[in-house]
Amino acid sequence: MSKQESKTRCIGILTSGGDCPGLNAAIRGVAKAAINRYGMKVVGFQDGFRGLVENRSIILDDRNVSGLLTMGGTVLGTSRDKPHKMPIGGKKQDMTAAAVENIKRHQIDCLVCLGGGGTQKNAYHLHKKGGINVLTLPKTIDNDVARTDTTFGFDTAMSIATEAIDRLHTTATSHHRIIVCEIMGNNAGWLALGSGIAGGADVILIPEIPYNLHAVAEHLMERRRTGKRFSIIAIAEGAKSVEEAQAIAEGKTRKTSPRREEVKYDEHGFAYHPVKEPKASQLTRQIQELTGIEARVTFLGHVQRGGIPSPTDRLYSTLLGTKAAELLARGEYNVMVAIKGRSCQAVPLKSVAGKKKLVPLNHPWIQSAMLVGTCLGDRSIIAEPQGEEEEKEE
To answer: Which candidate in 19, 47, 109, 142 is catalytic?
Structure first.
């Protein structure tokens, strides 16, 4: 394949935030197109922004990115560290200058960052404060990145969660139980809602709709009265009761990520999150007390983030990666490559950073769930547009 002229000679690439299926496919898509079509040099940084700050890098070529398409996780490694709030010696320090210095040391024209909402903000910070060029790709099983129709990783996670709900139906039916299945998604309900509908869950609880515990219990009792002797509840990890939502609104409780409420640091300075009781465990106890029906709980956890990416996610990752290479060749920087319909488009990173795409209450998935009789935790949902909200700095 003959190489085409490119305004970009060298790029850096890193993966940041949680891992998900499709990251390796996206690395492959960017690198293969950048190297083989446009003759760019590609430098991979290990373990996200921490690897960039510590200058831990490898040269990517056609040989070492081959075979990545079907691999889960990320060969570059990842972390949740922010360049401007990085744990160093037990303290958070602004390491923006070190990151910029290493980018210049490698003569990188643009840094390509693969990640979710936090990565979009961190990349934009490097651009604004450090004066470097960046380009991002939207990755997350949560599907909550603004300005893109979907994110890679979401389809695989939804398929895994749906299959889990399918399997739970058999034991719930056999033992006439209520089974509560906790699904990831952070503070967005896309994953629980999509897999709950596809898996035929009888109750779906998502963060966007605070649930009334008594309304949920009454729905389950009504199913029992009409001869349906089992029920499946799909609950998002960030779901909140009406009372909890009210406490947050009144400032009595701080709104936090269900995954990152408390952060501690290990002996090497890496952040980790102590284990805490999942939301579904609390709900299961409450439901059993209110209904008198035997209830069990299942946590899918990181199973949703692992394994082989679905064909759809492989396709999206490849489309996004090759589109990124095209934009880099044209010298178009400081954008996120978004999925729009059947194509990929560049959107200004400024319009993405700090925003989160939530489930609108008038979304077709909500309406369909209601029409097939699924309980969403509230007897009277007001269908008002909700969409993207500004994300507050933690």
So the answer is: 142
